[in-house]
Amino acid sequence: MPAQTTHDQLPGPAEKVRIRPALEALPAYVPGKPAADDGTRRFKASSNESPFPPVDAVRDAAVTALAGSNRYPDMAALDLREALGAQHGVDPSQIAVSTGSVAVSGDLVRAVVGEGDEVVYAWRSFEAYPILVGSHGGVSVQVPLTDTFEHDLEAMAAAITERTRLIVLCTPNNPTGPSLSTEQIEEFLDRVPEDVVVAIDEAYREFHDPATVVGTAGIFRRHGNVVLLRTFSKLQGLAGLRIGYAVAHPRLARALSQVTVPFGSSLPAQVAALASLRGEVQEELAERAEWIRDERSRVTAALAEQGWQLPVSQGNFVFFPVGEGSGAFAAFADERGLVLRAYGNDGVRATIAEQQANDLLIEIAGAWRRR
Ligand SMILES: *Cc1c(COP(=O)(O)O)cnc(C)c1O
C-alpha cells in the first residue's frame, strides 16, 4: 500500500520561475465572507448575491443542458447572443459573452490597454478593477469619489491623459450605491476623446428605480466609444454559473471575441442565461427586483430613523461610511449572525438579502449606534 501523504506534507521542489513583478503590487480579490457554519443561524450579506435561488424554469433548463456536457458548448453562444442582440436592438455580433462580466471587463482591458496605458475609474468602486487593470499591464488612475460617495466626473475628465485608453463608470456604484444620470454621462462623454473607450458597468441596473434609470441604450447608440457591461450574477441569481456580457460597437466587439478564452461560458450557463430572457421569467425577475427595492426602502428608512446618514443607494446593498470603525462594525455584525463586507477604513457594505437578514441588519445597526 502506498504511504498516505497529503500535499501539505510534501516538501516540494525549489521554485525559481519568474512571475511578472506587476503582480506583486496587486491586491488580492477579497471575496465576500461565507456565512460560518457553527450552528447559529447566519446570513451572508457580503457579496450582493440574490437571496432567491434561480427561477425554476431557468434551473430546469440548466439541469437539462447538463446531459449534453460531453460536448463543447457553442463557442459563439449564438442562441444567447441572438436573444440579447434582439433585446438590446443590436446585431448578435455586437454581444460579447464570457464567464461573468468581470471576465468580459478583463477582455476589454486586454483588447484596448497596452503596457503602461492608463485606465481611469472612480474609487472606491468595484474591487476587481485594480486587479484586472494591473494584471494586464495597465496603470490604474483612481479618482476619489465625492463626499457624497458619487463619481466625481469633473475630476475623472481632468484625469484623462494621452495614455488613457479606458474609463470605467460603475452605475449604481459598488460598494457605495449612488448612480449616474443620462445627462451626467452625456456631459462627461463630451469631454472624452472619441478614441478612449468608456465602459458603463451596470451590474445593478435592475435594482434601480425604473423611473430614473440611466438611458444607456440611447447613450450607446449616440457614442461609438461606449460599451455596456451586464451580468446574470445579481438579479438573475446565476452568480454560481458565471455568465455576463458586453454590448459593444462592431470593431470593439470583434476585438473582444479575439482575446476572450475560447469556450469560456459553459453550456448550462448559456442555456440558463437564455431561459432568463423568456417573458414569464422576466416578469418574475421584475417582481423580485421590486421586492428588493421595497426592502431597500424599508431598511434605509429604519436606518435614517436611527440617525444614520447613508449614501443614496440604487443597488441591492447599502453602504455604511463608518471610516476607521469599518472592521469593528463588520465584526460586531458577524458576532450577531450577519456577514457584511468591510472596505479598509472606508466603510461597510450590506447586501439587501432575505427579510430576516434585513431585520437583523436594522437591529445590528441600531445596537452599534447605542453601544
Ligand atoms: C457583481 C459585479 C459584477 C458581476 O460580476 P460577474 O463576473 O458577472 O459575476 C460586475 N461589476 C460589478 C460592479 C459588480 O459588483
TrEMBL record:
Its EC number is 2.6.1.9. It comes from the Bacteria. Pfam families: Aminotran_1_2. This is Histidinol-phosphate aminotransferase. Residues 46-342 form the Aminotransferase class I/classII large domain. Keywords: Aminotransferase, Pyridoxal phosphate, Transferase. Residues 30-51 are annotated as: Disordered. InterPro entries: Aminotransferase_I/II_large, ArAT, HistidinolP_aminotransfase, PyrdxlP-dep_Trfase, PyrdxlP-dep_Trfase_major, PyrdxlP-dep_Trfase_small. Gene3D superfamilies: Aspartate Aminotransferase, domain 1 (3.90.1150.10), Type I PLP-dependent aspartate aminotransferase-like (Major domain) (3.40.640.10). GO terms for molecular function: histidinol-phosphate transaminase activity.
